[in-house]
Design brief:
By secondary structure, this protein is α+β, with helices and mostly antiparallel strands. It has two domains: 157 residues, 2-Layer Sandwich (Beta Polymerase, domain 2); 156 residues, no CATH class. The protein is 48% helix and 16% strand. The chain has twelve helices and eleven strands. Strands 1, 2, 3, 4, 5, 6 and 7 form a seven-stranded mixed β-sheet that branches. The protein has a two-stranded antiparallel sheet with strand order 8-9. A hairpin with a 2-residue loop joins strand 10 and strand 11. Helix 9 packs antiparallel against helix 10. The chain is globular, with a radius of gyration of 25 Å. The C terminus is likely disordered.
Length: 366
Amino acid sequence: MPIQTHFNKFDNKIYLTSHSEGYKKAKEKDLSIFDDIKIAFKEAGYPIIDTFMQGSFAVNTAINSLDGDFDIDRAIVIDSETAPTDPVAPKQIIKNVLVKRNFKEPRIKKPCVTADYQSVNLHIDYTVYKKEASFFGDTHYLAVGKNGSGDNHKSWSESDQKGLIEWIDSVDEYVFGAVIKRKQLKRLIRYIKRWRDVNFSADVKKKIFSIGLTVMIKEQYAPNSFSSEVDDDLTALKNTIDSILNADYITAPWGTTEYRVYVRLPKIPKRDIFQHKVNGGYADGSDLNVGTQFRNKLLKLQTELQKALDETDEIKQCIILNSVFGDDFEVPARVEEQSSQVKSATRSFGAAALSSSGASGTSQGA
């Protein structure tokens, strides 16, 4: 069978949707907690006027985590007319609700409120926006700041999160077969996220942000505009990785042999996604350890994908891709091995049936 069949099986294994069996309990918790948050916000004087999912669920690129955890990223929107001056105030309300709902040490971080549920493998991030309506359209402002932040470190900062979601979903540049190409794009994003999870340590993995991977894949994915068909996923992924490495995302600061990765959001606030902490503030680009590891492992991925393309034996292709993506990219048994396994099982079944028949006959005869 073609290698695309194995990619399809791999995608079916790692693809997580809101309808996935294991996600149902997490979804129920999320909706129940959100009901409590709505009540608390209304009582505080700034009722919620909108909510939407962010992150990978919003754009259908979520994958099953290797540790069985479920992540939910929910935006909460209040009206600018009723929003408090202090952006931390509504985040404190969310924290209080989460404490009552048995979450483990909810934390108010600069961009969001984050917490882990104690009895369910559930991690939730809540971001708060205020919406300002005008003749030219709605503008959203993100609540930035945490407990103890001075006035110069907290603000309502313009952020076009909905625009980012729409950009990722956009098919305008794909011309013919746009929907088919968007589906392939989403598969490539899921593949690269699983590659990240399999190939990096926990400390580094958490700094290779999914949105950063998504933006790079989206910007460099370049299917044939004049064809309504798409190339196989192996070829498309290899071409996209080539383009990422040839772009200027990964560069070495002057005078060093190590690297930083730079990826800028395509929508407001257009900040660098991989910015790292420096002297209490932030500087563009990842830290050198993350950037160097990312480059080295991306080069290794490029090499292995080329090996898989050059290989003509289907089983050997799958072995290569299993080493890249982990055990969810299965290596099928060869036809002769399958035949041997069937014969062995048949012989075992026959012996067991004969043994069972003798025992039954003896019992009845007695």
